[in-house]
Input
Amino acid sequence: MKKDCDLIIKNIGQLLTLTGYTPKKGGEMSNLAIVENGAVASKNGRIVAIGKEDSVISEINLLDNAEEINADNKVVTPGLIDCHTHLVFSGSREEEFYLRIKGEDYLKVLKKGGGILSTVDAVRKASSEDLFNNGEKILNDMISFGTTTVEIKSGYGLSTEDEVKILKVIKRLNEEHPIDVVPTFLGAHAFPKEYKNKEEDYVNLIIEEMLPEVKEKNLAEFCDVFCGRGVFNLKQSEKILDAAKDLGFKLKIHADQLAYDGGAELAAKMNAISASHLEYISDEGIENMKQKGIIAELLPGSVFFMGKNNYAPARRMINNDVPIALATNYNPGTCAIKSLPIIMTLANIYMRMSAEEVITATTINAACALNLQNDVGSIEVGKKSDVVIWDINNYKQIPYFLGLNLVEKVIKDGTIVFQKNERGF
Ligand code: NIG
Output
């Protein structure tokens, strides 16, 4: 029997389906499962047929008023997935960026009450409406670069009330914006000023008050911790992650970002879904992550934006079968880049990842980092109809044309949500 469909994209030059094993590691990261002369059909926001155009057309029944898109022999990929951001905040930190260019150190700024803590001050003063409006603008920019799913962390409230305020804004963004938003609780992002010299009390506040309240209100899927010197040490991080696990949160961890701290090993010990940053990961950390199948969320935008050159050892990880995802890490301090294609270029140039690997890392592997691999990240029957049509005819141009927005159309849940205007913007 033919399958009804209300949307068909035809005449696709290169259809990058990204089907196959998940998460993709080692050589599998280079297999984009490309169909040439392809088509994708969907109904009610879910994909019902993919493959060569002739075969898709023979399988479907086009409903009245169905949308037909001619891709004009161009490239089509799954919607991009940004699996690590901190995009709900208030204010901006260009003054800190300015000082860093002059040589100021990131952690020294934080110690003096700037950095993350200056954003905490701004967020505590901001209304939920302002936070929502700011977040909505950022998501609008992201969708124009092809992003259809985003993870957002709290972590700029650092009190129960303000963390809950941020998480409620994240929930509202998910409800009102076309992009799917995955919420992560990051109360352990920094020690707030009022807990100076009482750090253990803040750890206890997270465990005894914040985590139970966030769980009770069902405001987060994941719990993350900024593990490292100057922030949460290994013992404190483990204590928080343990409590979060007991409550049923899935775990993430910021690990080995500014120095080697054993965070990757901790991620393995705790069976976290992912560990992020990993610029200073050890060989043992790589081995432990491989053994447990933990996804490395690499964030080259932050290394670039901080003016450093200590990029995470992506090639060593790929050679050792650690699955890699890439994300923007969009936040006001260490990365003001909203575009995943720019992140792909940085990963190409500075981490020597291939075009195929960076596309895998921003689609199916990023979906795995959010536990969404059954729903998004590849173009397969049954998955969401989240698709990007690119104004190019070779996918290798995505990371090549740095800074140019090559996205022609973004389809989310089977509906066009972004379209380049006739002047190409
Ligand atoms: O991932 N590492 C922790 N958090 C962010 C920085 C947040 C900020 O500076 O506001 C990061 O780089």
About this structure: The two ends are 42 Å apart (CA to CA). The first helix runs from residue 53 to 59.
